[in-house]
Amino acid sequence: MLLRFQVTNHASIRDEQELSMIAGDDRPERVQHPVFGTDLHAVPVAAVYGSNASGKSNVIDALKWMKHAVLDSFRRWDPAGGVPRRPFRFRPAPGSHPSTYEIDFVVDGIRYEFGFTVDDEAVLEEWLFYFPEGNRRKLYVREGSAPDTLRFGRWLTGRRKTISELLRPNSLYLSVAAAQNHELLRTLHRWFRDGLRTASDQDFSQRLDFTMKLLRRQFESRGDRETSPDAMTHLLRFADLGVEGLQFQEPDQKLLEEHKRIVAALNEVVGDRVRVDGAPGYRVHVQHRTTDGIFSLTLPEESSGTRTWIGLLGPVLTALSQGSVLAVDELDARLHPYLADALVGMFQAPDVNRSGAQLLFTTHEASLLGNNARTELYRDQIWFTEKDRQTLATRIFPVTDFYVRDSANTRDNLEKRYLSGRYGALPLLDDESLRRLADEISDGGASGAGEVAEEERRQAAGAA
C-alpha cells in the first residue's frame, strides 16, 4: 500500500507538498485495508483535480522520478554525471536548492518510511525506517554522499559495510543493496519496481508492450492464440468498444537489433543520458465481430479512446490481481466520462478489488464528483493542485481543508462546489484579454494568419 508521498522542489513543485492515501473516515462501501500495528486504513483511490498547468501531472511525475531513482541510480546513472533531477526553475540559482522525496508504504504488512535529498551532483541525505508493531525503528540514515556518512540501526542485518563500499555519491544505498541481493532491501526495491506503476502519454508504447507480454504469457499458458485470454476479453467487452479480442505479432527481430545498434553507438558518443524512443514493439491487431464475421484492424486504425483503453489493460489487470499501486496521469484523456468512472469503480469496489490495489490519478472530469457518477468518491479521496500567481509554484491540498456544514451528505455538493470555484483549482480566464483579442481580429491584426495559410497552400501545391 501507498500511505503518503511528500516532495519538495520538483518541476513546478517548489515548497514541500504532501499527498496522503490514509482514510479519514470508515466507509464500508469501498475497499479499505488496515495498516498493521495502527488504527489507520488506506483508501483505494485518490483523485487530483486542477486547472491546466497547475502541476497535477508533476505530482505523478515526481512519484515516477522517485521510483526511477531507486531503480536506476546505481545501475544506470553515469557515475560522473551527477543527478538528473528536475528542480523548480522559476527562481534565481535553481541548482542551489536541493530536492527531497519521501514515501510511506506498506510491504508484507509492515510500514516503511523511505526518503532522500539530492542536488545536481549527489545524494545529500537518505533514510529508511520501519514500524514493527507500530514503533518507529531506524534501519539506516545517510547524512552525506560518502559511505562513511551511513549510520545503521541494529535491526538492519546483512552485509551492510560491504555494500556501503560500493556506494557512489550519486547512487542511493537502497539501489546498491538491492543490486547486491540484500534480502530485506531487495524486497523494498522490488516494491518500487513491481508494486508501483505509472501511466502517462509518454510511456504508452511501454505500457502497450507490457500488455502484449501479459497477453502472450496468458496465451502460452492456454496454448491458444486465436482468442484473447478471459480477463482481458472481459475488460475489453466491458468497455463497449465493439472489440472482440486482440491478436499480436512479435517485434521484428532485425529491426530490434538495428535499434539496439543505433542506441549503443549514440551512447558511446554522448553517454546514457540520451534516450532513443521508437524501439520496434508488438504489432497489435484488434478484432471486431460483425454479422459478416470477425475482422481485424491495426492499432493505428483504431480510435484514440480504444488505443488508450488497450494501453491501460495490462497495468490495470496487474494492479488488481497483485494488489499494487497504479498512478495514472490524465485518466479522463480520450476516455468517455462513463468509462473513466467505471475504471475508478473497479478499484473502489470490494467485490472487484480483492487484493487491495490502489489507483492514484489526475483528471479534469468533474462529473466523477457528481450525483450521476457510478462510483462515489469521498472527501478523503479528493485533492487539488493550484499554482500561485506570483511564484508559479504548485500547491497540493485536500478537499477536507474546506469545512462542509452537512458532512453526511456532501456528494450532492462536491461537483457544484468545485465548478463554482469554492475549492479553487480552476483556471482564471482573463475576459479583458479576450476582448482585446476580438478587437485585434476585427482591426485586421490577425491578417498574418491568412498569409501563412496561403504560403502553406503554395508549398503543398509545389510538393504535389
From TrEMBL:
- Matching SUPFAM superfamilies, A to Z? P-loop containing nucleoside triphosphate hydrolases
Query: Which residues belong to any copy of the ATPase AAA-type core domain?
Result: 45-369
Query: Where is the segment annotated Disordered?
Result: 440-464
| Keyword Transmembrane helix part of the UniProt annotation | no
Q: Which UniProt keywords apply?
A: ATP-binding, Nucleotide-binding
GO terms (molecular function) for this protein are: ATP binding
Gene3D superfamilies named in the record: P-loop containing nucleotide triphosphate hydrolases
Point to the regions of Basic and acidic residues compositional bias.
455-464
Q: Which PANTHER family match?
A: ATPASE AAA-TYPE CORE DOMAIN-CONTAINING PROTEIN (PTHR40396:SF1), ATPASE-LIKE PROTEIN (PTHR40396)
Q: What is this protein called?
A: ATP-binding protein
Q: Which organism is it from?
A: Streptomyces glaucus
